Amino acid sequence: MKYAFFPGCVSRGGCPELYPAALGVCERLGIELEIMEGASCTGAGVLQEKNQRLGDTLNARTFAMAEALGLPIMTICSTCQGVMSQAHKRLGDDLAYRGEINQVLAEEGLEYKGEVVVKHLLWILVEDIGLETLKGFITTPLAGLRVAPFYGCYIIRPTGALGFDEHPEREDSLERVIETLGADVVDFAGKTKCCGFPILTINERNSVDMVANHTIDAKGLGADAMVTPCPLCHLNLDGFQPKASAQRGIKIDLPILHLPQVLGLAMGMDPKSMGLSRHIVSTKKLLSRVAVSA
Amino acid sequence: MEVTLNVKRFDPESESSHGYFQEYSLEVEDYQTVLDALIKVREEMDGSLALRCSCRAAICGSCSMRVNGHAKLACKTKIKDVATLDQRVTVEPMGNLPVVKDLVSDMKPFWDKIRAVQPWLQTNGPEPEEEYTAKNEAMLHLTGVMSCIMCGACVSDCTVLEVDKNFLGPAALAKSYRFVLDPRDESDNERLGRYSQYGGIWDCTRCMECVQVCPKGVAPMDRIMGLRDAAIVAGYTNNNGSRHTEAFTESVKHSGRVDELRLPLKTFGMFNFPALLRFLPVGLRAIRRGKMPPLIHKAIPGAKKVKRIFEKVEGTR
């Protein structure tokens, strides 16, 4: 099983713990990776505010690079996945548009033929590896741990671009993975809502209010941790949780784990190698419980 | 099929102000909608159930409500498509709007926002003898946004309105897009200036809830993005939102990736000390944990090729 790995900006930037955790987990799962060092940022929906065609051209370039490698793309960020999926749909629906974009790519000797597959690690677990097979890799079941899922908008909406019709299992994939790792799912209304990150520097109070709502809700329902396939959600839910605490005047203290970290814990990987000591909300108490349950 | 409707009840005259859920089990046909089922409940099982509907054909926009947690037109939603494996459907009133009774929402805050964007043609010159006309081609791209039936589904599920009632919201902003992009309207600058302030286009989180729940394909968030672009082009750039977009785009243009350290600095403005001070504790905490991007921002290999794409495509739409 081999993928062209699109790590995204944040896994080696603001969330430097995510990249090694993802590499470690993939190695254990027998996923071979060809890292796409020359691929650009997807635009994250921000660049698309100014110019969608420009964003689609950058993503078509990444798709063409993966096609040249003959590999499907693996992402580890809900935002990267969603923005690429949307570009993928537009370039698939409108062949004239794709033709125009290919003219720009031709100068670099690239052509996007429309055949690339783009999948988040979360979907790879469910669709390509399979949850039964995943079970076989688990050495430290997270029994007794109550984990709240938090998807990140772009991997859940709009469903039309994300292939939910062909893959209805994508809708609750995160819950199924949490269950497979032996943990209990804490279901809560906020799991598919916005973490607030995109407006953090524009309307901080609203952004932090969203962090407060989701973390307090999950905690109130008994969550020991929250897990997200999106590093941008992680940045806000973890990094701004102390502010959310102050804004509401209550202690929250809910560790926010990246998807590869929670996988790694269940596969017996060293927490330090996955950067679990780098979080703003301490994971110490949580880790002691994982060790105990092991 | 036998289905159980789990319906949120609320009676303003009752002592318990929070409401409660009530279950109704009934037989429905495969072709029947949530609205058909609710009407059956009201007519045959419980005459006290309040709901609002009119056309029953997804035209009037009266029967928006939450079905299994998301806003939908009850008349356009078949029971068999939304029933859970144990044949249950949860029905609640819309979110982000006050409830009058049971499934009936008070639309006043919705209409107040629509009015606030002045949804009428504003022109400067003398009135024409007949009507204001526009070329077909100039209006074609607005047919999508003009399909809005004012049902309020987008407002119901807007994640920003959940935390800030001051936000103009997806429906009103989509409506305003329709006038900003209308070649006959001459108030574009005033409109864009107003929307560039707190509560306007830059407060949207781009969460796409509105795109997902709109029953008419209006894609309100995409219209808000269109307004952002129009506002930047019109020169309304002295705000965090447009500085963020510009800085993000510049960063990708020159290095192929986002410069996460400098992005907030450029968004606030290098000399906006109060804002920078506010973020300082978060930054210090991150540094202490080793949770930060490299100080020296490195370009991706072949960044020049990315820059060439920018130069080629930037001017086009």
Q: Keywords for this structure?
A:
heterodimer, A: 294 residues, alpha/beta, Glutathione S-transferase Yfyf (Class Pi), Chain A, domain 2, Rossmann fold, 2 domains, four-stranded parallel sheet, 13 helices, B: alpha+beta, Ubiquitin-like (UB roll), Fumarate Reductase Iron-sulfur Protein, Chain B, domain 2, 3 domains, two-stranded antiparallel ribbon
> Strand order across the biggest sheet of chain A?
2-1-3-4
The count of helical stretches of chain B stands at: 14
Fraction of residues in helix of chain A: 40-55%
Most extensive chain-chain interface: A-B, 61 and 63 residues
Class of secondary structure makeup of chain B: alpha+beta
* Intertermini distance of chain A: 29 Å
From N to C, what is the helix and strand string of chain A?
A: EHEHHEHHEHHEHEHEHHEHH
State the CATH class of the largest domain in chain A. Answer: Alpha Beta
Q: How many whole angstroms does the radius of gyration of chain A measure?
A: 19 Å
